[in-house]
Amino acid sequence: MLSIKNLHASIGDKEILKGINIEVKAGEVHAIMGPNGSGKSTLSAVIAGNENYEVTDGAVFLDGEDLADLAPEERAHKGVFLSFQYPVEIPGVSVTNFMKTAINETRKANGQAEMPANEMLKVIREKSELLEIDRKFLSRSLNEGFSGGEKKRNEIFQMAMLEPKLAILDETDSGLDIDALRIVANGVNKLKSEKNAIIVITHYQRLLDYIVPDFVHVLYNGRIVKSGGKELAYELEEKGYDWIKAEN
Ligand code: ADP
Ligand code: MG
Ligand code: MG
User: How many Å lie between the centroid of ligand 1 and the Cα of residue 42?
Assistant: First the structure.
């Protein structure tokens, strides 16, 4: 589904990604871990098409299609979802209305009719129950005065509503208490299917107790320096990142 080949990306004259190769198949969960400043957020931003970064070599393919010429919105419409480490506030737009617009824009971009209002309400009800989100929350202004946990929960709600082909969760676990973490993980696990793939970016192993990855990659200094199964996450938890730094 997602194929990242020899990806190099820069910001200004600073090269941040220095030749990344990752293959993600449908149905898989990949975790990307690594010390701060390794390039994890840059990698997710480049996959999503953030135009602040320049791809200087290599490419990102989604279902065989080179994404290079696609704007972030076009990638989103093709099913690429990136959670935001620092979500924006949109005063006056409720969580529900934001979701309705996002869903209908995606459908329109894919040549589908708008979702009928009754179906929309049903889906919103189902997904919000799944994520233990209460009614009051749905009518609040997007991200305005949201606690860290509420922001994260809202991101996962968006993800559950949009049912993306490829979901990238960038440090969705930071700032979550254990209950919120469990709810977020539940949402992610329910989204998981044979048709989509999930990339979980995290600094800590904790989230991976709840969202069990098929593969773990360690990103350090712009390169994947180690890949393995879920046991690699435990090894990192135990030993920290210093040995990775020493080896590279
Ligand atoms: P991580 O998510 O692994 O902590 P980032 O991708 O955020 O790492 O950052 C990787 C490196 O790129 C860091 O050295 C960071 O300072 C640098 N970097 C990221 N974004 C920018 C930017 N907009 N301008 C300048 N440097 C940046
Ligand atoms: Mg960071
Ligand atoms: Mg980051």
Answer: 6
Is the distance from the beta carbon of residue 38 to the nearest atom of ligand 1 less than 6 Å? yes
Beta bridge mates, 23? 3
Q: Which residues contact 78 (CB under 8 A, 6 or more apart)?
A: 62, 65, 70, 165
Q: Does any ligand 1 atom lie closer than 6 A to the CB of residue 42? A: yes
The helix/strand/coil state of 157 is: helix
Output the domain CATH number for residue 169: 3.40.50.300
Q: How many structural domains does the chain have? A: 1
- Pocket probe for ligand 1: among 33, 36, 38, 200, the residue whose CB has the most ligand atoms within 8 Å is 38
Whole-prediction pTM: 0.91
Residue-wise pLDDT for 2-39, tens only, equals 999 999 999 999 999 999 999 999 999 999 999 989 99
Q: State the residue range of the domain holding 57.
A: 2-247
